[in-house]
């Protein structure tokens, strides 16, 4: 589903990604962990070109996404993204947040878009918040709406950039539940997170990143219980 | 001591001069309204150019804004009305007035629009783009609707300033409130009464404009 070949990213003179090679299969749930500054968010943001890769190639569903011929807007419709700070549109209700892109980009009729939105609100357990503005939602509710908004474009891949890091502890669970449901349904997901519970529960594979490279890649039990690389061991000892 | 006779006399004087002043006020309103519309259109373009990725658009817009903010409006009006005829371009006073005020206001509105757009969290643009919107779509449906709310108060200030600055067009023989006042004064020499009346009329206009801005601001803040 996703293939990354020798991905490099520079910010000015600073090399943040130093050659990433990775393949994500259809339906696979990848959890990316690592210390801050390791490049994990940058890696994720390269996958829908919110960051422009400096060198290397990225393929999604067989298409090379960082070639000049590609229609980036078309590509992004197929890769949903969920942000740490939700980035809901404050001038729109929950329903408006979810229906905006399907209506304006795909040209779906309002009634149909609303139907899709209600189904998604149901799925994330927020049907009663359809007409609520983001300012009146809790953090966990905001993030669930944000997930519904991304799903409304019917993406093939979902990218999560620390989706629970800005939440109060008691709200983390409700968001992870939605993500686990999504994983169970067979969505291809790449998740940057510090939630080891989620990694064990839903992750097929965990990538440990440090210093702009993928240090180690293994199924969650293996990586957490029996890390092979010294850097992984040190990181896990510090964090857990 | 109250001199009823004198007061009655003054009221009669005001009644006599008021129609002339109101005629001027109508011109002031017309010139200002057209300049406001021009300022909004021009300012939006300049503001969008300022935040665009194109170096060319950025520097052209910046140069424009620097020039019109850095030179007196009165000189700009002189150039348009008295200067351009030397190059064979003759504008009517009314047209030169609207053009001068509009070009000038556009520069200020451009800065307001720029800061309004910049005040919207970068994540909003990213979220919109991540859904597959193009840059213009993201601007139109996500960033600008939010920026508009933020720019209403400074825009209100700008347009109140514009209304008052419009008195300068009296020197290029537009028969606005200020020029009408001077004309009436040169005939009647009721100087104090005339200019106080003009001030009151200007105040009424800015007062209504302030209320209007407050009303729009309230109406737009439903989602906060």
UniProtKB/TrEMBL annotation, chain A:
Compartments where found: Cell membrane
Span of domain ABC transporter: 2-236
An example Gene Ontology CC term for this record: plasma membrane
Keywords: Amino-acid transport, ATP-binding, Cell membrane, Membrane, Nucleotide-binding, Transport
GO molecular function: ABC-type amino acid transporter activity; ATP binding; ATP hydrolysis activity
First-listed, main subcellular location of the protein, grouped into a coarse class: membrane
PROSITE patterns assigned: ABC_TRANSPORTER_1, ABC_TRANSPORTER_2
SUPFAM superfamilies: P-loop containing nucleoside triphosphate hydrolases
Domain of life assignment: Bacteria
Membrane topology of the entry: Peripheral membrane protein
Family: Belongs to the ABC transporter superfamily.
Protein name, entry field: ABC-type polar amino acid transport system ATPase subunit
């Amino acid at each position: 589903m996703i293939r990354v070949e020798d991905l490099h990213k520079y910010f000015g003179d600073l090399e943040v990604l130093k050659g990433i090679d990775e393949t994500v299969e259809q339906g696979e749930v990848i959890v990316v962990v690592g210390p801050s500054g390791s490049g994990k968010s940058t890696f994720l943001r390269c996958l829908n070109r919110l960051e422009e890769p400096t060198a290397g190639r990225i393929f999604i569903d067989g298409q090379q996404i960082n070639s000049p011929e590609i229609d980036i807007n078309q590509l992004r419709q197929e890769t949903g993204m969920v942000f740490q700070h939700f980035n809901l549109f404050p001038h729109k209700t929950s329903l408006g947040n979810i229906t905006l892109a399907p209506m304006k980009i795909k040209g779906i009729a309002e009634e149909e878009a609303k139907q899709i939105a209600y189904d998604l609100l149901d799925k994330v357990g927020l049907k009663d918040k359809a007409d609520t503005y983001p300012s009146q939602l809790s953090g966990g509710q905001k993030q669930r709406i944000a997930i519904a908004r991304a799903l409304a474009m019917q993406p093939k891949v979902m990218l999560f950039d620390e989706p629970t890091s800005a939440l109060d502890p008691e709200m983390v669970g409700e968001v992870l539940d939605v993500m686990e449901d999504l994983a169970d349904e067979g969505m291809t997901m790449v998740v940057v997170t510090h939630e080891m519970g989620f990694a064990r529960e839903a992750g097929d594979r965990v990538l440990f990143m440090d210093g702009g490279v993928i240090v180690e890649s293994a199924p969650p039990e293996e990586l957490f219980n029996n890390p092979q690389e010294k850097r992984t061991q040190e990181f896990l000892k510090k964090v857990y | 001591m109250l001199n009823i006779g004198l007061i009655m006399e003054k009221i009669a004087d005001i009644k006599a001069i008021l129609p002339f002043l109101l005629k001027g006020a109508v011109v002031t309103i017309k010139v200002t309204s057209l300049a406001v519309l021009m300022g909004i259109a021009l300012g939006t373009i300049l503001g969008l150019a300022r935040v665009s990725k194109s170096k060319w658009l950025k520097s052209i817009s910046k140069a424009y804004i620097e020039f019109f903010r850095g030179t007196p409006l009165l000189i700009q009006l002189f150039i348009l009305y008295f200067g351009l005829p030397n190059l064979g371009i003759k504008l009517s006073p009314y047209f030169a007035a609207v053009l001068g005020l509009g070009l000038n206001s556009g520069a200020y509105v451009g800065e307001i629009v720029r800061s309004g757009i910049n005040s919207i969290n970068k994540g909003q643009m990213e979220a919109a783009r991540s859904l597959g919107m193009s840059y213009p779509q993201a601007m139109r449906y996500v960033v600008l609707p939010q920026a508009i709310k933020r720019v209403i108060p400074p825009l209100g200030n700008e347009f109140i300033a514009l209304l008052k600055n419009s008195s300068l067009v009296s020197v290029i023989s537009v028969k606005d409130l200020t020029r009408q006042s001077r004309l009436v004064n040169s005939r009647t020499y009721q100087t104090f009464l005339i200019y106080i009346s003009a001030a009151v009329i200007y105040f009424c206009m800015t007062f209504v404009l302030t209320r209007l801005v407050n009303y729009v601001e309230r109406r737009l803040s439903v989602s906060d």
